[in-house]
Design goal:
80% of the residues lie in helices and 0% in strands. By secondary structure, it is mostly helical. It has one domain: Nucleotidyltransferases  domain 2 (Four Helix Bundle (Hemerythrin (Met), subunit A), Up-down Bundle), CATH 1.20.120.330.
Length: 137
């Protein structure tokens, strides 16, 4: 459970950094690109925390980001709508290496607030279930 706690804490910190930069009203190209980078590592941190959650709390083994999302939907950590959005988010995450394409970077940046909300709910649902099982907050 200690490794899971470390993963969840890392995901929480990553999400806070993403949410912070998304408060920028009129981002420069550099701030936009930094936002996309923060989205990348936040997405990684949350799905990997979910992978550990599934194994340690639910007894489910899932290896890839999309299989983790589907498993989280099956155990009730994600509802159907958030699971669909999370799968779309992974597609965006996979495209971030192509953000040298200005049009693509703008498209992905335009979805970051929605992605951050999904990541927040996903993380909160995991934390709530961990708390219920262990009594630790």
């Amino acid at each position: 459970m200690e490794r899971l706690t470390l993963r969840v804490n890392a995901a929480r910190k990553a999400l806070a950094s993403l949410e912070q930069i998304l408060q920028t009203n009129t981002p420069s190209d550099v701030e936009r690109d930094a936002s996309i980078q923060r989205f990348e590592y936040t997405c990684e941190a949350v799905w990997k925390a979910a992978k550990h959650y599934l194994r340690e709390v639910e007894g489910v083994d899932a290896a890839s980001p999309k299989s983790v999302i589907r498993s989280c939907r099956e155990v009730g950590v994600l509802d159907e709508n958030d699971a669909i959005r999370a799968l779309e988010m992974i597609d965006d995450r996979n495209l971030t290496s192509h953000t040298y394409n200005e049009s693509l970077a703008k498209q992905i940046y335009g979805r970051l607030n929605m992605h951050a909300r999904v990541l927040r709910r996903w993380l909160e649902h995991m934390e709530e279930r961990i708390w219920r099982q262990t009594g630790d907050r």
